[in-house]
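Researcher: Here's my situation. A collaborator sent me these components and asked whether they could plausibly form a single complex. I don't have experimental data yet, so a predicted model of the whole assembly would be a useful starting point for our discussion.
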Amino acid sequence: MSTPVLSVDDLRTQFPTDRGVVRAVDGVSLSIEPGEIVGLVGESGSGKSVLAESVLGIVEEPGEIAGGDIRFDGRSLLEMTDEERQSIRGGRMSMIFQDPMNSLNPTLTVGEQIAETVRLHQDTGESVTLSAELKRKIVGAAKNGEAWRRAIEMLESVQIPEPEARADDFPHQFSGGMRQRAMIAMALACEPDLVIADEPTTALDVTIQAQILEELEELKDEFDTAILLITHDLAVVAETCDRVNVMYAGEIVERAETRELFSNPEHPYTQGLIASTPQLENPDATLEPIEGNVPDLIDIEYACHFAPRCPEAERECFERPPEFRSVGDDHEAACLRRGPAGDRL
Amino acid sequence: MSDKNAGTPEFARHAGEFGPGEVPEEYRTEETVEEYTTTRERIVRVLKRDKLALLGALVVVGFILTAAFAPYVAPHGPEQQFGFMQEPMSESTGDFDGDGQRETVTHYLGTDSFGYDILTRIMYGAQISLLVAFATVAFAFTVGTALGTLAGFYGGKIDSVIMRGIDFIWAFPTIILGVGIIAVMGGLGWLNVVIAIGIAFVDDFARIVRGEVLSIRQEEYITAAQAVGMSDVRVMFREILPNAVSPIIVQATLMIPLAILGEAALSFLGLGVKPTTPTWGLLISDGRQFISQAWWISVMPGLAIMTVVLAFNTLGDGLRDAFDISESEVN
């Protein structure tokens, strides 16, 4: 196996509050190989987005990374200086956001925004100081450079019709789907090694959703980019991902190859998730909700975070932290009652 | 074929006439695109629609032009003396342009206690008064925006320190603070006036900008900008400030009349520019002791101040509507 593009090791990100420390990400490990699409699934509030922010190094104050390590292409991001990290963000690693309505700056044209990202990270011979930016705007020379050409090229590759004309449009003149495409164009403009897509299709309707996912996959092949796809939508995962990590209350509870996970879910939480999703093959099956809610992440005292909602929980589940156990081919679950160890009753 | 299918041939005849994406002529609709309106377009539009704002704008432009071309449009030189305290519309006869012939001139607004023509003095006074007002607002705008942006963007300790300083400025009445600052700096001169009133106005800009920055920095495109590797300074200047510009412009328009009044007040108190320089505040002050004999010396420059302040205010109100800013946001 080659070096993973991203490997997260026992990462802990927490937010101090008046009521105590919120452990949004509590000992998460995962790795992504080059050119792979890895899914990260979980309910709202399970810490998926905080994990993404931690990887990019843009956790909002007063949140902080309290432990663990994040290695990008073998180098620890946490040991880098701010400048080094800044040059990686948007260049070799970028992010696609959930809400396409809000993730583009309304005062700059779409083309300008993509071109600016290119200028920041690739040596196009165009100065990126603010005064140079202003001068370009006044002289109108912004469109002569290589960065602008690249922006148009990117818009074209994400299937925006008439890219030359649309590059001059402002974000509000784009539809939701087009904005998300423009976002993708921006994220991929510098051919990053890793793209973190945080719920990229959640705000879009299903037809557009399918198109965007398809495009992401095509672009992944074209640029050989690894993608960390964060979503709460199992259908999206099943459709696109090579491997899946299931996250619950700040922890990863199960990881497996996609097909394996859907056919043999092992962790009770994953089983619950799948049982609560409508199945096309079996439309008459009753949907089984998971009882209860995601716990308050402040000072969870019991060992397995899922134990209070788990139909199979026993006293031991509250006392002894579950470790990952192999439950199949390249398939691990963090549950005391699973695996060959024989705790299964 | 039974009767049941009797209706279908009617449709079948046209089957395939309109494929996907094709629409009969009469059902075609023009594609409409919502126009982006630039700041300039919005200002032009409001001036067209809001006649009061247009009038304000015209008066403002008129005053600025008069000030700029005072040596050409003023009827006399600023130092040229006539009879003392002549009434408005009175006339003087004499050789005023030095061509050896006697002519009669009208003093539309009268003359003051030194025999200067008041209309002329007001026109020249507009130069200093407007210049000081614009410079003051520019100063307050720059400093206030910078402080407000830093406070809003970084939050925490930086925010607390900056905003406590701003509160300190805010708690003082403008004129008293201005007097204090001039006393500390020592000496008269228009630059000192600009700095004194400018500092007193910093809080208004800083508060508005901070509020805007606080709300804008929650937007996802700010996180997105950080995620593509933009530095903090870049995020502030390229992403946040352009989105906060409307309330700042409106605030600036509404602050200019206050700056004119501030300068006039300081000059009136004798803390403004050199006493011989004509400014509106000094003109009013000069007429104070003669108010019972020659009311026009103080009233005429007062009217000038009133007119231009009113004009700026109607213009500012119009712009506020144009940018759709709620009244509570700017003061």
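Model: Some features of this prediction you could bring to your collaborator: Chain A is about 30% helix and 20% strand. Chain A touches chain B at residues 56, 58, 61, 86-91, 94-95, 97-99, 102-108, 116-117, 120-121, 130, 133, 169-170, 172-173, 183, 186-187 (CB under 8 Å).
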